[in-house]
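Whiteboard transcription, Tuesday session. T.W. wrote the structure tokens on the left side:
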């Protein structure tokens, strides 16, 4: 059981900034995110886009903003459970909560902050009948631990950054060439990555299958081969250890929608007159995931909501103490040892 002061569901920009604001009040945070890295929409959807409305930054790349937020949070030593979706919440007799993930990891805290953005990102799955038989037995939708795939015969489907980045990574690490299957010959990935992948093809490290898709999977419990349909050619069956269909992730409010929270238009209703608490005392919702009159889905609005929410969180966690807000210019930033 992981114990902390505040369980934060969602490691997007708002969840990350909460660590800092809570840290100033000496509250510890543990974050859960369904995707294997921190950053939410900024790393998942638009890491290379500049953002122009972050105070003090005339322009900052989304990916860089996440790096800065991680740096700002680091002195407060947050814990992370990444690549696992928060599935259930159970209120305890003393008013605290246990949040358990899709992988069974349990977290215990007196306060829960839901910073779940548009919801947990779920992989877009191809429509292949045999697919469920091989999930986690040769078919993976995310690369959580790349070392796990070293030395394996890997095929990747997709034309975006994720597909190209991992194809390049494994082509450079593994002896056997990586197969890269894409429905067209136009890739959405960054131009540099596409050029690099074609360079690796010349070196015999990547095999391209364009205008192609995987139509069937075979194996005895564990994936042994995939069937590739390619325009103008006979279907081909190739032996593989791992197939990574990387077709992107789509957000879904998911299990949070069944936690007894008041939901309006796929967002969680909160009290914006005070502290962004939900209808369940001790559970807050901040950032894109919440709704209230006049709500704006902007990063800086989420930062403001996080700052106010932790004030009430402090009172719940330390009912006997009084916290006096001091400027960081006065008290500095004292992290945890
Ligand atoms: C293309 C684009 C451009 C944008 N440009 C701007 C801009 O210029 N300025 C601006 O202010 N905003 C911009 N936005 C909006 C901005 O990205 C969002 O306001 C911001 O990402 C919200 O942050 P968040 O932390 O609330 O949620 P998110 O960034 O959505 O992060 C939420 C995280 O919660 C996780 N999660 C959800 N449910 C669960 C669960 N059950 N278990 C585990 N994890 C879960 C998700 O996996 C996700 O990582 C833009 C958005 C897009 C798509």
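and on the right, the sequence the group agreed on:
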């Amino acid at each position: 059981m992981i114990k902390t002061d505040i369980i934060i569901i969602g490691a997007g920009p708002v969840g990350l900034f909460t660590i800092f604001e809570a840290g100033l009040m000496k509250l510890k945070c543990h974050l859960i995110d369904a995707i294997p890295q921190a950053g939410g929409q900024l790393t998942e959807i638009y890491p290379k886009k500049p953002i122009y409305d972050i105070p003090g930054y005339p322009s900052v790349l989304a990916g860089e903003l996440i790096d800065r937020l991680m740096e700002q949070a680091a002195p407060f030593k947050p814990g992370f459970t990444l690549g696992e979706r928060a599935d259930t919440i159970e209120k305890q007799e003393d008013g605290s909560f246990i949040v358990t993930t899709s992988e069974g990891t349990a977290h215990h805290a007196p306060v829960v902050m839901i910073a779940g953005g548009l919801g947990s990102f779920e992989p877009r799955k191809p429509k292949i009948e045999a697919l469920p038989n091989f999930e986690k037995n040769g078919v993976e939708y995310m690369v959580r631990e790349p070392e796990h795939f070293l030395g394996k015969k890997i095929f990747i489907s997709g034309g975006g950054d994720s597909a190209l980045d991992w194809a390049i990574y494994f082509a450079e690490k593994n002896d056997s060439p990586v197969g890269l299957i894409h429905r067209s010959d136009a890739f959405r990935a960054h131009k540099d990555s596409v050029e690099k992948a074609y360079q690796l093809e010349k070196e015999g490290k990547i095999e391209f299958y364009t205008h192609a898709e995987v139509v069937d999977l075979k194996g005895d419990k564990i994936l042994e081969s995939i069937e590739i349909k390619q325009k103008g050619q006979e279907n081909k069956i190739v032996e593989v250890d791992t197939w990574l269909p990387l077709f992107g992730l789509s957000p879904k409010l998911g299990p949070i929608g069944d936690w007894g929270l008041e939901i309006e238009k796929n967002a969680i209703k909160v009290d914006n007159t005070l502290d962004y608490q939900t209808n369940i005392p001790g559970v807050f919702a901040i950032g894109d995931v919440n709704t209230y009159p006049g709500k704006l889905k902007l990063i800086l609005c989420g930062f403001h909501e996080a700052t106010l929410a932790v004030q009430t969180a402090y009172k719940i966690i330390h009912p006997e103490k009084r916290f006096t807000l001091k400027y960081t210019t006065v008290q500095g930033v004292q992290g945890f040892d």
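Someone added at the bottom: The pocket of flavin-adenine dinucleotide is lined by residues 9-15, 32-35, 40-42, 45-46, 51, 53, 85-86, 115-121, 254-256, 287-289, 297-300, 302 (CB under 6 Å).
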